[in-house]
Write a structure and sequence with these properties.
Length: about 80
């Protein structure tokens, strides 16, 4: 999800900045470029949320219970229909 539209900063960008060591408001503002003239500054009002996001690990990756469309694990079964 986007947290700054001016700079196209996403929650993932904030977490990545946190992993790189930017875990304070000042460090995040600098790392994400929120102090530039291209940013309106409204996102800085949510800086407490940014700091909390920077401290969080990445969310777990969702995996599909059925890796193939036919659900039986046979990736070549579509050719039988031809």
């Amino acid at each position: 999800m986007y947290v700054c539209l001016c700079k196209a900063v996403t929650e993932s960008d904030v977490r990545e900045a946190g992993r790189a060591g930017a875990t304070t408001a000042t460090a995040l503002i600098g790392a994400l470029g929120l102090d530039s003239d291209e940013c309106c500054g409204l996102c800085i009002l949510d800086m407490d949320r940014f700091v909390a996001l920077a401290a969080q690990p990445d969310p777990p990756v969702k995996t599909s219970a059925q890796p193939f469309a036919n659900g039986n694990g046979d990736r070549h079964s579509w050719s039988a229909a031809l």
